[in-house]
């Protein structure tokens, strides 16, 4: 019996390692393709196509982006601004809402929780939403419209509610109230301190959303100077006239040998860079958020 | 829980129920005054959902009028169901519904199966750092923007320089033009969905597996169960509740398409619409590209209402079968 079990175990371990490593490789593969392409000489790409290992190494792509950095930097600025303002604002509103909704002395908490949850069940659709922001709030081509729609979501509010519930013991509210603290003081002085890991998770979810947002720009922004980073990249990939645009904006005629293919890929790496760099440090907060969020509240 | 309540009439749950009507007499206004600080704290969220969700619901009426950006909603000419008729006659509705529904179903079924498999395999890895590393790498695509996905697709499949054709050429085979092969995109969309979302659901299943008590496995080992039997008879049954929960959440939004995924993969490539167009991309295109506002609103309302009816039905059935799993 023992020997047989050992055999099965070894067989299983073999299968596990092979399958997991294969899938991991498949997950990594597209990144490697892009990194490789961004480091390849443009001429080589045009004649031989994209490879997994650069046939002819070159930093031309990156040099090209940094030669005329105005556009990229501006897009970086727009995304940076919306990410910071949106994340901080969203955190403030979401934590307040989450705090109130888990507070036992707030009698209508279930009704308001349903008021928020219902928006995931039913809505007016894209067009009325679009008209609301453009026609009635008149927010076309403003930074506000890049920030406001992403500030809150039912998922994040419920997640925050559950976080506070599990992190702050009920007695603390009572003793703080006896000491004469009002609800906002309890929230700001005690609850926020105690739910810092929750704040980190929610904040990172918000920041990721804003950083990766291209949809808001495509919906609401006509002025290319206000494009978010991702939408800027989207346009670079999808416009053949990219080079001429860059030439025109910098006032320099760029001639024929412009490394467009490798520049596109270098641009993709530059746009994703911050996420790739931060990822190892922040991913555990997402894991935490998912495991707590999966608990129904 | 419920059996408990019936058995002991003094259970705390029952007490609360008796007290509730007494408190209610004081009413909303009294509550508003005593808890004014909390109402103020909740106010931003209320205003946000009013603006972002509830007031736009009034705009459903747009589906029943002739759209004109310069006149206000209720001064627009009422046309009844004309927009819907138009949508129906265009013949797109059936295809859009089927695509939206079908893709989501494929995502749910294949996605969960793959996530469960991966979670079990990863949890059985013995080398700690490798376990962490593989999990991190599988989760990574979730953090990448969908625009990068379109870069990847361009890199792999564009006709002149794409990686696929580069490979085919090295092996002296005919290059393939993916953009004229609609059927291939069904697979590509599903594969890239899995690529992007595998890590996300795997993390949830991994957490559930970590939560299973070691004792079960020890006991099974003593009884002589091998590793395959342990997985089949312990791990899989223990994952059932997580699976059902994720499944029901997903079923609730089965009419909501993955807009970012489809739009970044396919874009406005008309050749591929037959197999890749979903309600969300259709609405977006009607709004931003072809400017058919009537059709866009009508399709949006159709999606919302149909989706809502589906959720209510699913939730009703779940309530009948097993109350604990109900969505609300």
Estimated radius of gyration of chain B: 26 Å
CA distance, first residue to last residue of chain A: 46 Å
- What is the N-to-C succession of helices and strands of chain A? HHHHHHHHHHHHHHH
Shape of chain B: globular
State the share of residues found in helices of chain A, binned by percent: over 70%
Helix content of chain B: over 70%
Query: What would you call the structural class of chain A?
Result: mainly alpha
Quaternary form: heterodimer
Averaged pLDDT of chain A, please?
85
The number of distinct structural domains of chain A comes to 1
Report the total helices of chain B.
17
- Main sheet properties of chain B: none
Number of strands of chain A: 0
How much of the sequence lies in strands of chain B comes to under 5%
Largest sheet of chain A: none
Describe it:
The complex is a heterodimer of chains A (297) and B (328). Chain A is an all-alpha fold and 297 residues long. Chain A has a single domain (67-293), classed as Orthogonal Bundle (MetI-like fold). Chain A has 15 helices and no strands. The longest helix of chain A has 37 residues, at 2-38. Chain A starts with a helix and ends with a helix. Chain B is mainly alpha-helical. Chain B has helices at 2-7, 12-24, 27-34, 36-58, 82-89, 92-124, 128-139, 146-157, 163-170, 182-210, 214-222, 227-238, 240-252, 259-266, 273-276, 279-288, 293-321. In chain B, helix 6 crosses helix 10, helix 6 runs antiparallel to helix 13 and helix 16 (279-288) packs antiparallel against helix 17. Chain B is globular. The two termini of chain B are 18 Å apart. In chain B, 34% of the residues are buried. Mean pLDDT of chain B is 85; it is low at 1-19. The interface between A and B is large, with 101 and 98 residues.
């Amino acid at each position: 019996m023992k020997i047989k079990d050992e055999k099965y175990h070894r067989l299983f371990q073999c299968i596990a390692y092979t399958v997991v490593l294969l899938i991991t490789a498949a997950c990594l593969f597209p990144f490697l393709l892009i990194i490789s392409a961004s480091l390849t000489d443009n001429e080589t790409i045009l004649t031989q196509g994209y490879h997994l290992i650069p046939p002819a190494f070159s930093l031309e792509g990156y040099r090209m982006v940094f030669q005329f950095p105005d556009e990229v930097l501006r897009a970086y600025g727009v995304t940076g601004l919306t990410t910071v303002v949106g994340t901080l604002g969203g955190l403030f509103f979401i934590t307040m809402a989450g705090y109130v909704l888990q507070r036992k002395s707030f009698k209508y908490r279930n009704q308001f929780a349903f008021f928020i949850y219902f928006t995931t069940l039913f809505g007016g659709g894209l067009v009325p939403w679009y008209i609301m922001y453009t026609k009635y709030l008149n927010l076309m081509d403003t930074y506000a419209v890049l920030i406001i729609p992403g500030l809150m979501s039912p998922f994040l509010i419920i997640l925050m509610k559950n976080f506070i519930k599990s992190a702050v013991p009920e007695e603390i509210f009572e003793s703080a109230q006896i000491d004469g603290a009002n609800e906002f003081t309890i929230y700001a002085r005690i609850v926020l301190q105690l739910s810092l890991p929750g704040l980190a998770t929610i904040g990172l979810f918000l920041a990721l959303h804003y950083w990766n947002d291209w949809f808001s720009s495509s919906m609401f922004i006509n002025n290319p100077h206000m494009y978010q980073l991702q939408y800027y990249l989207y346009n670079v990939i999808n416009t053949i006239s990219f080079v001429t645009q860059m030439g025109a904006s910098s006032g320099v005629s760029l001639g024929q040998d412009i490394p467009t293919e490798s520049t596109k890929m270098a641009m993709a790496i530059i746009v994703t860079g911050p996420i790739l760099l931060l990822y190892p440090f922040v991913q555990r907060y997402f894991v935490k958020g998912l495991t707590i969020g999966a608990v129904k509240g | 829980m419920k059996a408990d309540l019936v058995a002991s009439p003094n259970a705390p749950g029952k007490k609360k129920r008796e007290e509730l009507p007494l408190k209610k007499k004081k009413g909303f206004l009294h509550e508003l005054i005593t808890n004014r600080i909390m109402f103020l704290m909740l106010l931003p969220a209320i205003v946000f959902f009013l603006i972002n969700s509830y007031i736009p619901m009034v705009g459903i009426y747009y589906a029943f009028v002739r759209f004109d950006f310069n006149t206000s909603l209720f001064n627009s000419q009422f046309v009844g169901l004309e927009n819907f008729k138009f949508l129906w006659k265009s013949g797109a509705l059936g295809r859009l519904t089927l695509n939206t529904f079908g893709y989501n179903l494929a995502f749910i079924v294949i996605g969960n199966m793959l996530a469960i498999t991966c979670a079990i395999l990863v949890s059985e890895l013995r080398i700690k750092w490798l376990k962490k590393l593989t999990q991190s790498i599988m989760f990574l695509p979730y953090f990448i923007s969908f625009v990068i996905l379109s870069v990847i697709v361009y890199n792999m499949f564009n006709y002149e320089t794409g990686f696929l054709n580069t490979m085919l050429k090295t092996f002296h085979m005919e290059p393939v033009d993916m953009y004229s092969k609609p059927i291939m995109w069904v697979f590509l969309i599903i594969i890239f969905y899995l690529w992007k979302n595998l890590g996300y659901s795997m993390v949830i299943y991994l957490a559930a597996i970590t939560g299973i008590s070691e004792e079960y496995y020890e006991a099974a080992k003593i009884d002589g169960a091998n590793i395959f039997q342990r997985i089949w008879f312990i791990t899989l049954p223990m994952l059932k509740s997580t699976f059902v929960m994720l499944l029901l959440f997903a079923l609730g939004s089965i009419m909501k398409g993955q807009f970012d995924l489809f739009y970044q993969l396919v874009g406005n490539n008309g050749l591929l619409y037959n197999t890749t167009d979903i309600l969300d991309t259709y609405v977006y295109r009607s709004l931003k590209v072809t400017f058919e506002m009537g059709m866009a609103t009508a399709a949006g309302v159709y999606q919302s209402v149909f989706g809502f009816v589906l959720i209510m039905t699913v939730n009703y059935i779940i309530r009948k079968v097993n109350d604990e799993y109900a969505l609300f």
